[in-house]
Design brief:
Radius of gyration: 15 Å
Helix content: 40-55%
Length: about 130
C-alpha cells in the first residue's frame, strides 16, 4: 500500500467547552454523532478535550481526502461532519467509521486503510490522519 493522503488539524478546546455550556448552540449536535457524544463522556479526559480531538480528526480526514481529489478530479467535496465518525476500540484507540458520501468518496479514491491519531495539550487538540490506498 501507499500513502494517498495526509491531513492534520488543530482545534481549540475552549471553543468546545463554551459550546457545551451554551444551550442555544447547535454546534455539538450538528458536528457529532450520538455515539461520539456518548463516548466523549467516558474516562478521565474532559468531554471538551475529546470533542475537540474528534473535530480535529474530522477536519484532518477531510484535508487528507481532499488531497486525493487533486490527482483524480477537480470536483469539490461537500463534507457532512457526521459522515466522518470518530470511534474508539476496546482499549481507547481512535479509528474512523465513514458513512454516506464520505464513505463513497473514500472508496472511489482508493482508500484502503485509515490511520488516526489524537493528542491533547493545554488548550488545543490535534488530529492527524494518514490514508493508505
Amino acid at each position: 500500500m501507499m500513502i494517498v493522503g495526509i491531513g492534520t488539524d488543530l482545534a481549540d478546546i475552549d471553543f468546545f467547552e463554551e459550546c457545551l455550556q451554551d444551550n442555544k448552540t447547535t454546534v455539538i449536535s450538528e458536528t457529532f454523532t450520538a455515539q461520539e457524544i456518548i463516548t466523549s463522556e467516558r474516562g478521565p479526559v474532559p468531554k471538551s478535550h475529546r470533542l475537540a480531538g474528534r473535530f480535529a480528526v474530522k477536519e484532518a480526514f477531510f484535508k487528507a481526502l481532499s488531497q486525493t481529489t487533486l490527482h483524480r478530479s477537480s470536483s469539490k467535496i461537500n463534507a457532512n461532519p457526521k459522515e466522518i465518525e470518530v470511534c474508539v476500540d476496546h482499549i481507547g484507540r481512535p479509528y474512523l467509521s465513514l458513512h454516506g458520501e464520505m464513505d463513497t468518496l473514500a472508496k472511489e479514491r482508493g482508500v484502503k486503510k485509515i490511520h488516526v491519531s489524537i493528542s491533547h495539550e493545554k488548550s488545543y487538540a490535534l488530529g492527524f490522519v494518514i490514508l493508505e490506498g
